[in-house]
Amino acid sequence: MPGPLAPAVARIIDGAYRAYRANQAFENSRTAAELAQLAVEIAERRKQIKETLRVTIEAMTREIEVKSSTFAVVDRGGNSTVSRRGQENITFKEYIERKVPFRPAISQVCTVALQMPIKVPRRIRKKIAGDTVPTTIEIALKQFTASLFFEAVDEALEWRSPLKAEPNYNGNSKKALLGEPVTRPKRFGSAVQPFWPRPKGLLAPDLVVVEYRQEPFETENVFAAVEIKFPGDWVVKKQITDYVNLMKPSTGVNPDKIGREKVALLRVPEDCTGFEIDEKNNSTSKGQKNRR
């Protein structure tokens, strides 16, 4: 008979499950056949997003010289009137309402990632009727899918997209880890999973919007560092604080304010363009249906 700790234990188990990062899921896809199948699926998704965002990519190609801040003017910010839990919409209000350039394109990518995430198997041992039975569950990699899509757009634009997926920064020096060309983020993962693992001491915002596309994504050239949260992935204050400190200049007037103003929070689907608020339940049926 379950005791009073059962609900707490269940929450911990659920939190641990959701906390599994993509690398842990990949490590459990051990067979060559599974990895080969996953590589094919990733290749298909890259083609899919390039076609889905074909018009956006063509527009970005034409507007390669235009500053990102130009596109932030028309953005109305996120929906701080919507809260997933607790006082989230109050605690992180300024980050939710931050103007983010290219929100429609970002929203489109995140919506596709939410609805059709890449899934990988994970082997577990489960107790059934007193016996331990090996079984397999699927983990939906929404954040990885979104990052893969943003990277596909960047590659299509010869690494001159304003949207950089999970670029790495040295947590101490705040220097960006540049690839080749210097507008391409340096990766430490595999060809299948480029974003993870990453060396200790590095910080990698989910998405960085650069001001000038033909220059490296050093913090001075960052217009917005965007933390993306899919359903079930809650906002963590330390994570936001880390990014504020990363974006904070070492000199100048009011560096703390500048650091804060460069950080944005985008919850999917609540802060995506086209999300409509249901005044009765402070959400939408679509938003609830996609919650996992």
How many structural domains? 1
Give the N-terminus to C-terminus distance in angstroms: 28 Å
**How would you describe the shape?**
globular
The main sheet comes to: 4 strands, mixed
C-alpha Rg, in Å?
Answer: 20 Å
Helix count equals: 12
Strand order of the largest sheet: 3-6-7-8
Summarize the structure.
This is VRR-NUC domain-containing protein. This protein has twelve helices and eight strands.
Write out key terms for the chains shown.
12 helices, 292 residues, four-stranded mixed beta sheet, two-stranded antiparallel ribbon, 39% helix, disordered N terminus, globular, 16% strand, disordered C terminus, alpha+beta
Reconstruct the topology from this structure.
Layout: H1 6-19, H2 22-27, H3 32-52, H4 54-62, H5 69-72, H6 88-91, H7 93-96, H8 103-115, E1 118-128, E2 131-141, H9 142-156, E3 163-165, E4 169-170, E5 202-203, E6 207-210, E7 222-229, H10 237-247, H11 255-261, E8 263-267, H12 285-289
Parallel strand pairs: 7-8
Antiparallel strand pairs: 1-2, 3-6, 4-5, 6-7
Describe this structure in words.
This is VRR-NUC domain-containing protein. It comes from Pseudomonas paralactis. By secondary structure, the protein is α+β, with helices and mostly antiparallel strands. It has one domain. The protein is 39% helix and 16% strand. A four-stranded mixed β-sheet has the order 3-6-7-8. Strands 1-2 form a two-stranded antiparallel sheet. Strands 4-5 form a two-stranded antiparallel sheet. Strand 1 (118-128) and strand 2 (131-141) form a beta hairpin. The protein is globular, with a radius of gyration of 20 Å. The two termini are 28 Å apart. Mean pLDDT is 82; it is low at 1-30 and 283-292.
